[in-house]
Specification:
By secondary structure, the protein is an alpha/beta fold. The protein is built from ten helices and eight strands.
């Protein structure tokens, strides 16, 4: 912490790498050809090939291949600015048992009785939003927690924010202290305004808090991580 800036990078395509390794060779080939077409900006051909990969995987009962094809199609649809179709495809790529992990949420202000809202913004609801924010900071308790999935990371708020288009996230790993968190975030935003990157600003804020005798334990200065693609 004293010498290095610590940040966590997003996986290249939101994962499913292990699923691709286990996919049937015929499905892998179709996915590879589709990805090459996408990179050559041949959008419709790429989508057709991904769809062929999905149908081939179903015929072969290749669940890993089908999930991988859905995932890659979702990434392609994001790049084509078709967010709703992208979300549907990415949701089909989720491993079984993921739905409960996407019920992680943020408890907001109590809504009016006649709105039909419950006051909780869940990870699944976040996935369905096309956010234009460059960064989201969730300074409440345990906002980085989630169910670990091979090739996907932690399924929860991190996964949902990434799918909804947020390139940088600052989240907590455990239950945090209100007092120390308020001070850390004050230092953090000052460093951001001074022109530092999110990861560098978080490091400076942690070091500043650590200098105070009553906050020297890592519980106070180390709960937050910066997850960023830049």
């Amino acid at each position: 912490m004293k010498k290095w800036i610590i940040g966590i990078g997003l996986c290249a395509s939101l994962g499913l790498g292990q699923a691709q390794i286990r996919a049937h060779p015929d499905v892998e080939a179709l996915i590879r050809w589709a990805t090459e077409a996408r990179q050559q900006q041949r959008a419709q051909k790429a989508l057709n090939l991904y769809q062929q990969a999905i149908e081939t995987a179903r015929t072969l009962n290749d669940r890993a291949g089908e999930a991988s094809a859905h995932h890659n199609m979702g990434v392609a649809l994001i790049l084509m600015d078709r967010p709703q179709q992208a979300i549907e495809s990415l949701q089909r790529a989720l491993p079984s048992g993921t739905n409960s992990n996407l019920q992680s949420g943020l408890l907001l202000a109590e809504p009016a009785a006649d709105t039909g809202e419950d006051g909780i913004l869940t990870a699944r609801e976040l996935m369905e939003l096309a956010l234009s924010a460059e960064m989201v900071v969730l300074s409440a308790c345990e906002t980085a927690r989630g169910q670990a999935r091979p090739g996907e990371g932690a399924i929860g708020m991190v996964w949902a924010l990434t799918v909804s288009g947020v390139p940088t996230q600052v989240l907590s790993q455990w239950k945090v202290s209100d007092e120390s968190t308020a001070m850390l975030m004050s230092h953090y935003y000052k460093a951001l305004r001074a022109g530092q990157s999110p990861a560098a600003a978080l490091r400076e804020a942690a070091l500043a808090l650590r200098q105070q005798k009553r906050f020297q334990h890592p519980y106070y200065w180390a709960p937050f991580i910066c997850i960023s693609s830049w």
